[in-house]
Amino acid sequence: MPIKKDPFELSISTEGGYSELLIKRPEYRELVTFSQNKILPIYNWFYYKEGFSRDLVWNLLNELKIPKDSKIIDPFCGTGTTLLACKQLGYNAIGFDILPLAVFVSNTKLQSNYDMKILKEKISEISSLKFGPSSLKWTQPGFIDIKKAFSRYARNDILFFKEKILRVEDEKIRNFLLLGLLSIVSEASNTKKDGGVIKIVKKRHLAPVRYLLKNRLKKMYKDLKRVPTSNGHAEAHPGDARNLPLEGESIDMCITSPPYLNYVDYTKLYGLELSLLLDNKKELDELRKKSIRPHIGAEYKRGKKIKSEKLRETLDGVKEIPITSSRVPQIVEGYFEDMYFSLECLYRVLKEDAIAAFVVSNTCLPNITIDVDLILAEISEQVGFKPREILVANTRWCDVHGIRKERPVRESIIILEKST
Ligand SMILES: C[S@@+](CC[C@H](N)C(=O)[O-])C[C@H]1O[C@@H](n2cnc3c(N)ncnc32)[C@H](O)[C@@H]1O
């Protein structure tokens, strides 16, 4: 009988170097995913599959004994899980993201002190509007045809509501309503997010936009009533983690999750929502060039030579894969260069003795597993950090090109210390 292998055990049994830092922590398995957020008020206002969950942040703050007067940073804040979780516990927090959609969603989730009476009135006003034509147009995102992505009715209705919402004077209420609209775009479309890409699919029963929006806004309103106010302050800014506009030694702690090395292009995956939020295609194209490089579109040339033994070995392995496209080694190298610059920048803004927690996933290619966690631990040391431990939250079997149950792939939380 074949011996049953536990991928968790197997994944931490590699010997030597930074793998000595690996610690099995399965209680974090669900929390490194967005799963818990899906049922939490406010956290679930926008489904961001790449996010982690509230309790990951709460548990790390607790486990690492972070004092309440600390200021926390998330340089890749996504839709603001770290920011909201910190604010709710009374911490101050600041976040950056290159994607305007992510910054908008984060800041709207962080808004508080609404005039609930006016908000209720506006929700019912918007929900009961009689349809009419809209003078607005969709920005074609370029990689998908808006006319195929939505029925004519859905397209018109979304633009109709957008136009009405943009006329709402109160900024906070306007943002709230616009987030409601953005959050139903995917559901109202003939598309499906599938892994890292968005696909056109035929949906049998598409609910009308008006119905989806009304229900969504009602639910969001209820959430505001359920969630207690807190005295922490948090905000998100558009920005690049490789070049943060912050003073040196001004931040006490970091909890973040950079894009994974898995070719997910956020500007495509959330392209429909982005094209509704932004009004021109040029801006969208510019964005794609700027992001961290797990995907082909991104450009950022500084040509840093990273001194990492593990990365060198990995790149040699990648080059040997028979089916490797000539761009893969370049993409992998580019990714780690970007991570080097992000770590270097983070090191500068953190105070002495500060701790940083990085949630990352390893990557599986046909004959090689890229141990992103171990490579980043090594790179972080080059930047000046001391890698303390690598909490292995989850493992799955590599399943590319029919390779099954051979190699475990880790999802980990790298804990770094800024020590001088
Ligand atoms: C894994 S997601 C973070 C999700 C977040 N933890 C949450 O719970 O919502 C990574 C984020 O990094 C952002 N990003 C990509 N390149 C960036 C860069 N150069 N600077 C800042 N953010 C970037 C992406 O837009 C994406 O929102």
Characteristics:
420 residues, 15 helices, binds S-adenosylmethionine
Written overview of the protein:
This protein is an alpha/beta fold and 420 residues long. It has a domain at 113-228 and 263-279. It is built from 15 helices and 12 strands. It has helices spanning 7-11, 54-63, 81-88, 100-110, 116-127, 146-149, 152-166, 171-184, 209-226, 266-269, 271-277, 281-290, 309-320, 328-349, 372-383; strands at residues 22-24, 71-74, 92-97, 191-194, 197-200, 234-238, 251-256, 350-361, 363-365, 368-370, 385-397, 408-418. The strands form 3 sheets. The protein has an 8-stranded mixed sheet with strand order 1-11-12-8-7-2-3-6. A two-stranded antiparallel ribbon has the order 4-5. α4 (100-110) crosses α8, α7 (152-166) runs antiparallel to α8 (171-184) and α8 (171-184) crosses α9 (209-226). The radius of gyration is 22 Å and the shape is globular. The termini are far apart. 44% of the residues are buried. S-adenosylmethionine binds next to β3.
The major β-sheet equals: 8 strands, mixed
Low-confidence blocks of residues: none
Rounded Rg: 22 Å
Bound ligand species = S-adenosylmethionine
Structural class: alpha/beta
Helical content band: 25-40%
Report the end-to-end length measured between terminal Cα atoms. 53 Å
Average predicted local confidence, pLDDT: 90
Overall number of strands = 12
Order of helices and strands: HEHEHEHHHHHEEHEEHHHHHEEEHEE
Q: Per the principal axes of the C-alpha atoms, what is the gross shape? A: globular
Q: Helical region count?
A: 15
Main β-sheet, spatial strand arrangement: 1-11-12-8-7-2-3-6
Strand content: 15-25%
